[in-house]
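thread from #wetlab-drylab

HS: before we spend reagent money on co-crystallization trials with NDP, can we at least see a predicted complex? here's what I'd submit
DV: go for it
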Amino acid sequence: MFSSESHMDLGCPVHGLIPSWNSAALLAGFFAYLAIAGSVVPGKLIAGVVLPDKSRLRYRCNGLLSLLLLVALLGIGAKMGFVSPTAISERGLELLSTTFIFSFLVALILYFSGCKSQSKSSSLKPHISGNLIHDWWFGIQLNPQVMGIDLKFFFVRAGMMGWLLINLSVLAKSIQDDTLSQSMILFQLFCGIYILDYFVHEEYMTSTWDIIAERLGFMLVFGDLVWIPFTFSIQGWWLLRNKVELTTAAIVANCFVFLIGYMVFRGANKQKHEFKKNPKAPIWGKPPIVIGGKLLASGYWGVARHCNYLGDLLLALSFSLPCGISSPVPYFYPIYLLILLIWRERRDEARCAEKYKEIWAEYRRTVPWRILPYVY
Ligand code: NDP
């Protein structure tokens, strides 16, 4: 029933991992499209937050249009027989290893260009610890640019789009193999909405931790290009090989988890974004509670200090629930995200405590919960 070509299964032979010129060409085509579309497709120009050196970068937020155009072009290409909709799902591991090698090389180039730009007077001062492995892993430059393209913004966009393309190819494979199930439809629907929503609100990305605080090294390049698309799609690969019977109650409960997660995730991020633009804007219909003129302490930000993480975790859970509970494999993403967000919350807390000092201490007293009220 399942084609031996479906390489992203866990019992597959290691030879599936050997990179090929085909996968390198697919990857190169994808990046070339993103670079061209990123510069020519119309989109709002958003000024990023003020960086430590007081400069501000500009981001062209045309991700949604670029993505829809790409999917339309691929759809037309598939109809005309130029591209195979299952091309990605048939080369999962090959693409994974090729992307991994690419990320490794990009991080090396970033390391050397970071060292070089230290000697020049750069507007964004590179941060070198002197330890090669450390600097290669965490990165040296905060916002490296190539031909006017902000690499950090570019890579995260590539990762999110890659995730959708992998999912769509897995969907095409399940249709081709005649294994399309309710579980696959739910998984595709939830992830599809999440990814499209990400691009609808792409401008919010410009004020996130990754963009404003994390340097670009192997950790982030690998996270964006390999980790996001390949591990977040594990449920889809798993459903290609496993059949799940869902009861109506399970489907309803699954939709409920998704909707609550979406409401909290999007609502919290939106409230913070709007608060930063206009600190007087009403929150849930009331004037906002503001600490020290800088920190929002009402709405979702009055429920827990990182309520947005709670919403994201519920969403991650909703992507896995369609796979039932017979195996822990499809729960890789929510478990990983739980660990990542707990770690990130601690780092963000330390950053904010240093930046906001007494104001942050007061916020902590006002809103004692980190992510989940009464639990954590
Ligand atoms: P946040 O969007 O929560 O940003 C944290 C920053 O917001 C702080 O450093 C501070 O920055 C500001 N801030 C914090 N509290 C307040 C407050 N009460 N009022 C005003 N400003 C405040 O974190 P992330 O960038 O980590 O996450 C953004 C989204 O991305 C989240 O929803 C998260 O779940 C998601 N995400 C998803 C991942 C995935 O793999 N699926 C991975 C990582 C994140 P400032 O100095 O500007 O005030």
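DV: Strands lie at 44-47, 58-61, 145-146, 149-150, 290-291, 295-296.
HS: ok that's useful, forwarding to the group
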